[in-house]
């Protein structure tokens, strides 16, 4: 494995308004998405906004899945960050959400987080770098 985790940013348009504006539906979908990828559910928290919209977060032993909805636009945004090597695939969670929210259009970006191949890691710690200190502004600073 060359990264600590994989992070998906998912945008979904044309979603079913009744589904994405129902806190219980969103909670159930997040829970089922977790089961579908065989991740370890720690907790799930969802909040219904007024007059509309839902935010839901599933805390996983492997990280998290979050969803924010704007039913007035038929739009939902999801953030899927999973660690655990190549065992659990965030794309499968993304596919589950797209189908469950009945998205008509989607956009997906995937990032690797915590690139290990770009760092000298030994025994879980950064190795001496000949007195050089990692640049704290580097996008892959650990």
Explain briefly what this protein structure is.
The chain is α+β, with helices and mostly antiparallel strands. The chain is built from three helices and eight strands; from the N terminus they run E-H-H-E-E-E-E-H-E-E-E.
Element layout with pairings:
Layout: E1 3-13, H1 17-20, H2 23-36, E2 41-48, E3 54-60, E4 63-70, E5 75-83, H3 90-100, E6 105-115, E7 121-122, E8 125-126
Antiparallel strand pairs: 1-5, 1-6, 2-3, 3-4, 4-5, 7-8
Helix pairs in contact: 2-3
Could you explain how this protein is built, in words?
The chain has 142 residues and is an alpha+beta fold. The protein has one domain: S-adenosylmethionine decarboxylase (4-Layer Sandwich). It has 3 helices and 8 strands. It has helices at residues 17-20, 23-36, 90-100; strands spanning 3-13, 41-48, 54-60, 63-70, 75-83, 105-115, 121-122, 125-126. It has a 6-stranded antiparallel sheet, with helices on one face. Strands 7-8 form a two-stranded antiparallel ribbon. Strand 4 (63-70) and strand 5 form a beta hairpin. Helix 2 (23-36) runs antiparallel to helix 3. The longest helix has 14 residues, at 23-36.
